[in-house]
Amino acid sequence: MRSRIKLLSLTVGATVVLLAIGAVLVVLGTFNEYLHWDIFSPEVEKFLYGIFFSCLSLGGFGVAISTVLGIQEVVQALRRMIEAASPGAIEPAKPAPRRSYVAVLAALLVLLVGTILVFNAVNHRVKVKRLQVFKLVVRDQMLQLGPHLEGETAKIQAPCPTCATPSLPELMKTLGDLSFCQWAVLYMADPADKAVLWRYPAGGRYTSYDSETPAKFERFFVASDVDRAIAQALGGDTAWIDQMNGAPDFNWTQVIRDGQGKIRAVLKIYGNPNESYRDYQAVAQAAAKRKKT
User: Are residues 166 and 285 in the same domain?
Assistant: First the structure.
């Protein structure tokens, strides 16, 4: 009987450990999903999912921890009854204090909170590195696409709804299809009114350039700080957008100049914060080397 009780107690303890591991993985997965952590690579995520489902199958994740601890209480009560009924027993064993369970749960809670704080701090450092890679990659990409955009904007003497060149949709689609880019918007000044800007595509969002209705330029009034910074850059002063490019976010503003060096347009690139950027490490290193030289 004692051996069975020991086996049951060992099984309960192992189940509690499995449930605790599964619970920690669930919480980490939730924070990873909603805080967009980039700590775990896809291979590591698959490995963690394997551990989680193993704990789920072995520990019976559907059983609540409180139920498991209740079973452990029953096991301890049976053990005390057996020891009290055995010959030569002097006094029954003292029951385990209930506050020990509170201490265990408190320790688990502290461990969980500490784990989340540590991972959040690590994720902050990873995000800083991702931002560096993003800005290196987008500058490198503009070295390739920038001259083509310069040529297309040079063909537009004054922006109008139907002034997009035949190749401009292709260039914007190429940029928008890159995984690190959510969408991109091209801005041009209105020669007749400094309080107005033109943007392509209309609406200032990524659009499908394969649709039957072609994308058009859209005229709008300068209203937000971003609009004013772009208007200021189109007037020749890039200090504001240079400051914005140094901000810790996944956006980049690129000026497009003509052959005489005059700013003809401004390209606003909205980066994808959910991109891991691991696949761009080689591109970033090559871009950093070219920047040094």
Answer: yes
Measured in residues, the chain has a length of: 293
Question: Is there a single domain that holds both residue 276 and residue 135?
Answer: yes
Residue ranges making up the domain that contains 40: 2-96
Distance between CA atoms of 286 and 269, rounded to whole angstroms?
A: 21
The rounded distance, in Å, linking the Cα atoms of 23 and 56 is 10
Whether residue 285 is contained in a domain is answered as yes
User: Do 227 and 267 reside in the same domain of the chain?
Assistant: yes
**Sheet harboring 196-200: ordered strands across?**
218-221, 196-200, 181-189, 263-271, 251-257
Which pTM value belongs to this model? 0.61
- Would you report the helix, strand and coil content of the chain in percent, each value rounded to 5? 60, 10, 30
Residue where the block lists tokens 């605790």: 20
What whole-number distance in Å separates Cα of residue 293 and Cα of residue 285? 13
pLDDT digits (tens, 9 = 90+) for 122-160: 878 888 888 888 888 888 888 888 888 888 888 888 888
User: DSSP string of 166-188?
Assistant: TTHHHHHHHHHTSTTEEEEEEEE
Same domain, 92 and 150: no
Q: Around Cβ 46, how many Cβ atoms within 10 Å?
A: 10
26-74 tens-digit pLDDT: 877 877 777 667 676 666 677 677 777 776 676 664 465 556 555 666 7
